[in-house]
Write a structure and sequence with these properties.
By secondary structure, the protein is α/β, with parallel strands linked by helices. It contains three helices and seven strands, in the order βαβββαββαβ. This is PTH hydrolase.
Length: 134
């Protein structure tokens, strides 16, 4: 589960993916388990939920390069694009509304496009979190 955003720019609408991952880590009682993984240039926490082993990942790059971290982590943890869930902001959704999308285009989202390019696939499941238009 990868939270897209601009690392270090906490609290901005475009980093809502990382905020969701922080919340998920707290709910799964692994919030203290975040560690820097230099191999994929990301903060990583491992968790278990409903019998599934999860890799929570917050890329330590700017949005348009998030895919490089995710592709590296996919290789390290032997994951295919279909195993990856992206959590990212969506300007076209009202603030706080969420939607799940399987595959498809990036729809102009630079972080998603970076992931599609780095993984050579658009098969990732996406949790789109509405941030509304300015």
């Amino acid at each position: 589960v990868a939270g897209l955003g601009n690392y270090g720019l906490w609290g901005t609408r475009h980093s809502v993916g990382m905020a969701v991952l922080d919340r998920l880590a707290r709910r799964l009682a692994v919030a203290e388990g975040w560690r820097v993984d230099r191999r994929c240039c990301a903060d990583v926490a491992l968790a278990t939920a409903h019998g599934l082993e999860l890799v929570l990942l917050k890329p330590r790059r700017f949005m348009n390069l998030n895919g490089l971290s995710i592709a590296s982590a996919a290789e390290i943890y032997s994951l295919g694009p279909e195993d990856i869930y992206l959590v990212h902001d969506d300007l076209d959704k009202a603030l706080g509304k969420v939607a799940i999308k399987l595959g498809g285009s990036a729809r102009g989202h630079n972080g998603v496009q970076s992931c599609i390019s780095a993984l050579h696939s658009s098969e990732m499941t996406r949790l789109r979190v509405g941030i509304g238009r300015p």
